[in-house]
Structures are given as C-alpha cells and as structure tokens.
Amino acid sequence: MPVTPEVLLSRLEDALGDKLVSGRVALGEVTIEVRPEDWHDVAVQLRDEPGLRFDELIDLSGVDYSAYAETGRAEGRYAVVMHLLSVARNHRVRVRAFCADDEMPVIASVVDVWAVTNWYERETFDMFGIVFDGHPDLRRILTDYGFIGHPYRKDFPVHGHVEMRYDPEQKRVIYQPVTLEPREVTPRIVREDNFGDVGHG
Q1: Positive or negative: CA dihedral 172, 175, 179, 182
Q2: Most buried residue, 36, 94, 186, 197, by CB count within 10 Å?
C-alpha cells in the first residue's frame, strides 16, 4: 500500500538531509529540489535507500525558466527535472536541480544509475543545450547534424536560423539562412453594436 505524499516527503527529508534544498507536496505530488553538485549522489541514494527504492526513471527533461520573471526567481535559468517511480513501494517523486551556470549549463549524467536515461539526456541536450557530464554518447538526437541552436530555449526564434530545402539544380538538400520576415499577426475582430441583443432582430 502506498504511503501518503506527506509521509514520503518526510522520508525524503530524513534520507537526504542537507542535500535537500526544498520539498513540497502540491496536488498530491511530491517535488524536491537539490543542488546540481548533489544531483548524481541524490539519484543513487533515491534508488538504493531501502525506504525509498526509486527503481525506475519515468521521464527526464529540461526547463528554461527565463520567462518566469513573475515567480520572483532571480537566478537559475536552466533546470533538469526527473520523475521517478518506485515499483516496489508504489510511490513517485519529482526531482529538480538548477544548473549552476546559465551560460554553459552542466549537470552530472545519471545514465549509470538508470540506463533508460540515455536518450532522455540526449534529448535534453539537443533541445535545451544542457550538458550531461559523464554521458557516454552525448550528441543530438532529434535535430539534424548541422542544426544551430536549441529549439526549446525561450530565446530561440520561432522561425529558426536556417531553412532546409531540396535544390533541383544541385540535386541535393541545401541549407540557407531563413528568408521569412518576422511579423505580428493581429486577428481582425468584427463587433456589432447590438451583437447578442435579441431585442434588435
């Protein structure tokens, strides 16, 4: 029988001690935050601790918090978030760590803890530009080899940097700078003075 989120959070606080930056329960889910330098050690501890036994990683991704100014976050643009499941204990946890450097976000790889993390870390590297130190084969997985930038970053242009097309004269695929002009589309709204007024027809 699974424990309540509050009991699980208490177990996490006891097990992780000062490695835990913060922890909370919201909407029935437990979220903890750890420092980036403790990321790998915490992962090992979450997997091996008898009272926790998070033996399965469900998901791992990055988050770009640069557009979250209203939340009051003054530092830490990039975070890595993983969702863990304990099949044995039937409980889940979300673990987050902010990368120390916004210019070059780096965090330890946890491929040696959960092998399934391999492609998740590659996708996060490809889309966010977060480097996973110790990853055995960190290269792009979704974009092309010549792709420039990281599409899930908030400052990545909607239209991209280059476009790819087939050139019938050269009989090959070519890359060229994007020729689209950035523009704002404002929807045309038509309102009648008496719209919805059933008394006028």
Answers
A1: positive
A2: 36
Q: What angle do CA 48, 85, 91 make, to 5 degrees?
A: 95
Q: At residue 104, does pLDDT exceed 60? A: yes
Domain that holds residue 92: 5-136
Q: What is the DSSP string of 28-48?
A: TEEEEEE-GGGHHHHHHHHHH
Per-chain mean pLDDT for the chain: 88
The number of domains in the chain is 1
Residue 172: inside a domain, yes or no?
A: no
Rounded to whole angstroms, the Cα distance separating 194 from 174 reads 55
- Asked whether residue 165 is assigned to any structural domain, the reply reads no
Q: Is residue 190 situated within a structural domain?
A: no
Provide the Cα torsion 81, 85, 86, 87; round to 10°. -160
pTM of the model: 0.79
SS3 of residue 23 by DSSP = strand
pLDDT digits (tens, 9 = 90+) for 118-163: 999 999 999 999 999 999 999 999 988 778 889 999 888 777 677 7
| Nearest Cα residue to 23 out of 15, 31, 14, 11 | 31
Q: How far is CA 200 from CA 190, 191, 192, in A?
A: 18, 15, 12
Whether 67 is in a domain gets the answer yes
Asked whether the beta carbons of 121 and 106 are under 8 A apart, the reply is no
